Amino acid sequence: MPKLIVEKSPPLKGTVRISGAKNSALPIMAATLLSTDTCELKEVPNLRDVNVMTEVLRSLGAEVEKKNKESYDINSANINNVEAPYELMNKMRASFLVMGPLLARLGKARISMPGGCAIGTRPIDLHLKGFKALGAEIEVGHGYVEAKVDQLKGNRIYLDFPSVGATENIMMAASMAEGETILENVAQEPEIVDLANFLNKMGADIKGAGTNTMRINGVEKLSSCEHTIIPDRIEAGTYMTAAAMTGGDITIENVEIDHVKSIISKLKEAGIKFEEVANNSLRVIGPEVIKAVDVKTLPYPGFPTDMQSQVMALMSMAEGTSVIIETIFENRFMHVNELRRMGADIKIDGRSAIVTGTNNLMGAPVKATDLRAGAALILTGLISDDITEVNQIHHIDRGYSDIEEKLTKLGAKIRRVED
Ligand SMILES: CC(=O)N[C@H]1[C@@H](OP(=O)(O)OP(=O)(O)OC[C@H]2O[C@@H](n3ccc(=O)[nH]c3=O)[C@H](O)[C@@H]2O)O[C@H](CO)[C@@H](O)[C@@H]1O
Ligand SMILES: C=C(OP(=O)(O)O)C(=O)O
Question: What is the pLDDT, as a whole number, of residue 326?
Fold first, then answer.
């Protein structure tokens, strides 16, 4: 199994370019199933999850051509299969996002139920509530969700929680339903806006994306379009944290500054300096001493749960004690045990982690329990004495394009080895 070897590194210096957002690319790739024409996607990140979504689309009958490292042509004119089996679902939860498009396009879908994962149980009740409200009959059994409908019909739907995935799945289905759908208490993440922009370019009629209410007028047909995926705000936040922890001075290119406001605001509070150097470029300067700050994860525009473990790594070396509260996922503290193995002083009390900074962090063999946990361990490895060996890096490859190349270019000591 490959692993990453990370050594104590000098302050990071130089420029890093952020890739397209995983959490935009995946729903947008699923949304190409709605089109009877070719969709051209640019800035698709080079990730394991994108490869899995490619496999899922091909298994449904779509033609997916990878034109170069980050551009794809996808044609779903002849999709002919409505089943996403366990073998594919099991590789990536976001595969469930094909359910809405399949229902809208073919009136049927049979999708393996996504299980929980290292960060929580992650139910799909809100997705199903939305499909039912649009007129679909749903049956759950033997590990599969089966849905069928003659014609989806617009409705008024209120989400009990602004789930990102449920918002995306329902908006994709509603974009080809008969009549108007009013979707309330929806997620407002930038990736929702990117998906709405993509669907609208294909001919959909979606208004209000980025607010808590969307109005979707169903259309009969969606066609071709060209679209560039927005930059990954979590990847950007991770490199900001790397610069902060190493006391570095780096420029991050291809970052949508509006999308990282909550991250910048928290990092500024901790003493990190930022300068907007050009359109979509940000200079990040790490201070000599990081100040402890409290963090609470929230739906966008609040502080993202996908940055919680990285900011915990930062607080592990801060001056003072911070409280980090995770409100989105009930079990997203698996990285705590690994950080403790590296000398971090962290106590858990329910959904809160109390982190007391130390300057005695030390390298150790550790495992990435999930994608962002892996990022936190790499970050901690950059400032720890001796060598950190990060195992189970398939999680990291799900969501960080070329991470060791990008970090090496900034002066980090990191390499991938095969065991
Ligand atoms: C591929 C992708 O875009 N993944 C992101 C997406 O995941 P994902 O779309 O799975 O996250 P959700 O916003 O749906 O989940 C948030 C919370 O809602 C709960 N919930 C969700 C759906 C449902 O039907 N019922 C229910 O109870 C979940 O268990 C969780 O506790 O948003 C998360 C929250 O910002 C991010 O951490 C993930 O990186
Ligand atoms: C939780 C994440 O992703 P996913 O929803 O794909 O598991 C993440 O990107 O941190």
Answer: 98
Closest-CA residue, ligand 2 atom 10, reads 306
Q: What are 382's strand-pairing partners?
A: none
- Ligand 2 centroid–CA 120 distance in Å is 11
Tell me which ligand sits closest to the C-alpha of residue 164. 1
Q: Give, using CA atoms, the residue closest to atom 7 of ligand 2.
A: 93
Q: Is 404 in the pocket of ligand 2 (CB under 6 A)?
A: no
Q: How far is CA 236 from CA 144, 243, 283, 406, in A?
A: 36, 11, 11, 12
ipTM exceeding 0.85? yes
Q: Is 126 annotated as a binding residue?
A: yes
- Counting as low any pLDDT under 50, the low residues of the chain are none
State the DSSP H helix or E strand holding residue 417, giving kind and residue range, or none if neither.
strand 413-418
Residue range 273-322, pLDDT digits in tens: 999 998 899 999 999 999 999 999 999 999 999 999 999 999 999 999 99
Q: What are the start and end residues of each CATH 3.65.10.10 domain in the chain?
A: 2-19+231-418, 22-228
CATH superfamily of 2-19+231-418: Enolpyruvate transferase domain (3.65.10.10)
Say whether 39 is catalytic: no
- Measured in Å, residue 362 CA sits from the centre of ligand 1 at 33
**Among 82, 227, 93, 106, which Cα is nearest to 166's?**
93
| Amino acid identity for residue 196 in this structure | A
Residue from 5, 117, 138, 298 carrying the catalytic annotation = 117
- C-alpha 92 to ligand 2 mean position (Å): 9
Phi, psi of 394 (to 5 degrees): -60, -30
Atom of ligand 1 nearest to the CA of 124: 24
pLDDT, tens digit (0-9, with 9 covering 90-100), for 197-217: 999 999 999 999 999 999 999
CA distance 40 to 214: 26
Domain 22-228 has CATH 3.65.10.10: yes
